[in-house]
Structures are given as structure tokens and as C-alpha cells.
């Protein structure tokens, strides 16, 4: 079963849950408490508790479907299993649980922000956060715009890779080939040109 790429990266999902009505700052606070503190406390039971709490918040408070809340993709599951196995054999299983549970807790609680917060409100919160750095020459609007572009480009590129692979399999090409790079490169260039034209039309493409 293919993982939902937009859900993995935290695509916004409109809704009327309690999480959708929460202010952005409170979601950031939950990310700090549930997703970051496990790496400082460094206790396996604390990391496990934060993981359970993160999943519970996604399922109950944000009312996400179980597949959206729990799906992280096969590669990341494999990476977590390898991390846990490494620590079980070479250090301690407790340390493995600390890192794996902490990583998953951070990922799952981050979805509370990105899946239940309108992108516009999310960018406004970032602008407000970077605002105090204006005297130092920071440009909060451009910083937020950069994050927004990254947030939209990464899913596009990942989706492009998946589409090329599926098209290749449909044509009987089972092994990796340099020919796969051509359509991906063309798609990436086309996406970049479209984004550039959109920015230029809004007066954001020229240096000040």
C-alpha cells in the first residue's frame, strides 16, 4: 500500500476538529513539549509516552484517519527498525527506544501543525516569529516564502519520481536506468519555471 506523500510531509487537511481551532502558538508548544523534550530527557519510558501522546493527539484531537496519522512510508520504517536493531546489539535496547520513539513522536506531533493549520496562517506565524530579527536585516516575508516554496516543491519532486517509476513499470522496465532521469529533470525544470513566473508576476522575483 502506497504511503500518502502529502500526509507524510504534512499537507493541510481542512476540518472542524479541536486541533483546527487551536491557535498556532499552542500547536508549536505541543511540538516543543512532545516532539523535542524526549531528546533532552533521554529516558525510554518518557520517549515512549510522548510517542503514545503524539499518536493520540493526531487521532483524537485532530481527528485524522489512522492511515494519515500513522503512515510514514516503508523506507522510514526500515530505517527505524535498523536503528533499533543496532542499539539492541551494540548498545542497549533502551537507547534504541529513545531514538526511535523520539523520532516518531516528533514526526507525528509535527503533523498536528501542518495538517490542521491553514498554510496562510502557518506562514503568518513564521513571519511573526522571525519579525523581531528585522533590525538585524532579516526579511520575515521572504523567509516564510522560502519555506512555502520548499513545502510545495518537495512533494512535487517526490510525486514526480513515483510517477516516472510507475510509468517505467507499466512499460516493462523493472531496473533503474539513466533514462528515468530525463522525465524527472524535465518536470523539475518545468516546475521551477512555473514557480519563477508566478513569483515574477507578484513582484517577488527581482532583487531589491
Short description:
With 208 residues, the protein is mostly helical. It is built from eleven helices and no strands.
Account of the 3D structure:
- The chain has helices spanning 5-8, 18-21, 24-36, 38-41, 44-61, 66-70, 74-90, 93-116, 119-130, 140-170, 181-201.
- The termini are far apart.
- The chain is mostly helical and 208 residues long.
- Helix 3 (24-36) runs antiparallel to helix 8.
Notable features of this structure?
single chain, mainly alpha, 11 helices, 74% helix, 0% strand
Strand content: under 5%
User: How does the major sheet shape up?
Assistant: none
Average of the residue pLDDT scores: 77
Q: Total helix count?
A: 11
Structural class: mainly alpha
Stretches with pLDDT under 50, minimum 5 residues = 1-9
Order of helices and strands: HHHHHHHHHHH
Q: Helix coverage percent of residues? A: over 70%
How far apart lie the N and C ends?
47 Å
Count of extended strands: 0
What overall form do the CA principal axes indicate?
A: globular
Radius of gyration: 20 Å
Transmembrane segments: 28-57, 69-89, 96-114, 143-164
Subcellular location: Membrane
Protein name: Energy-coupling factor transporter transmembrane protein EcfT
Membrane topology: Multi-pass membrane protein
Helix and strand topology:
Elements: H1 5-8, H2 18-21, H3 24-36, H4 38-41, H5 44-61, H6 66-70, H7 74-90, H8 93-116, H9 119-130, H10 140-170, H11 181-201
Amino acid at each position: 500500500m502506497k504511503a500518502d506523500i502529502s500526509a507524510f510531509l504534512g499537507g493541510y487537511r481542512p476540518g472542524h476538529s479541536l486541533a483546527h481551532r487551536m491557535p498556532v502558538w499552542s500547536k508549536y508548544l505541543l511540538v516543543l513539549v512532545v516532539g523535542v523534550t524526549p531528546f533532552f530527557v533521554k529516558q525510554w519510558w518518557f520517549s515512549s509516552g510522548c510517542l503514545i501522546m503524539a499518536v493520540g493527539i493526531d487521532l483524537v484531537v485532530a481527528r485524522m484517519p489512522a492511515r494519515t496519522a500513522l503512515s510514514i512510508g516503508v523506507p522510514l520504517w526500515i530505517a527505524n527498525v535498523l536503528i533499533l536493531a543496532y542499539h539492541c546489539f551494540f548498545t542497549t535496547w533502551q537507547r534504541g527506544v529513545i531514538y526511535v520513539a523520539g523520532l516518531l513522536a516528533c514526526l507525528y506531533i509535527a503533523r498536528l501543525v501542518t495538517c490542521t493549520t491553514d498554510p496562510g496562517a502557518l506562514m503568518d506565524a513564521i513571519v511573526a516569529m522571525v519579525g523581531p530579527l528585522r533590525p538585524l536585516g532579516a526579511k520575515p516575508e521572504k523567509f516564510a516564502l522560502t519555506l512555502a516554496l520548499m513545502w510545495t516543491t518537495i512533494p512535487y519532486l517526490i510525486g514526480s519520481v513515483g510517477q516516472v517509476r510507475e510509468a517505467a513499470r507499466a512499460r516493462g522496465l523493472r531496473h533503474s536506468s539513466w533514462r528515468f532521469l530525463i522525465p524527472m529533470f524535465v518536470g523539475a525544470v518545468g516546475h521551477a519555471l512555473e514557480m519563477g513566473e508566478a513569483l515574477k508576476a507578484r513582484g517577488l522575483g527581482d532583487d531589491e
